[in-house]
Write a structure and sequence with these properties.
This protein is mainly β and about 120 residues long. The chain is built from no helices and 11 strands.
């Protein structure tokens, strides 16, 4: 059974950095991608960044391009999201997800989800 566990969220000030992690287990796909989504109160869940697991190819939504970096460690099947120059509008519950195949930005295209880790950016 696939399990995804996020960690590393917290309360930071605008301009600070934070790294969140997603530890995965039970993935049996031969070819898969993982992604970070986020959901702010009253808003829909949105794609943040994704990574094709074996090639390392990445994709980002425009609002985080140049500030966030997605990466993975295949030895421990863990995905990371390094977030720099954080803004109040980055405040959200951050989820990781996995799907068979290449990176997609649509929520319903993902098969498994974690429970999320809260990131709050406030002065």
């Amino acid at each position: 059974q696939v399990q995804l566990v996020e960690s590393g969220g917290g309360l930071v000030q605008p301009g600070d950095s934070l790294r969140v992690s997603c530890a995965a287990s039970g993935i049996t796909y031969n070819y898969y991608s993982m992604a970070w989504f986020r959901q702010a109160p009253g808003k829909e869940r949105e794609f943040v960044a994704g990574i094709e697991w074996y090639s390392g190819a990445t994709a980002y939504t425009d609002s985080v391009e140049g500030r966030f970096t997605i990466s993975r460690d295949n030895a421990v099947i863990t995905m990371y999201l390094q977030m720099n120059r954080l803004k109040p509008e980055d405040t959200a519950l951050y989820y990781c997800a996995v799907r068979r195949g290449m990176v997609r930005s649509i929520v319903r295209d993902y098969d498994y989800w974690g429970r999320g880790t809260q990131v709050t950016v406030s002065s």
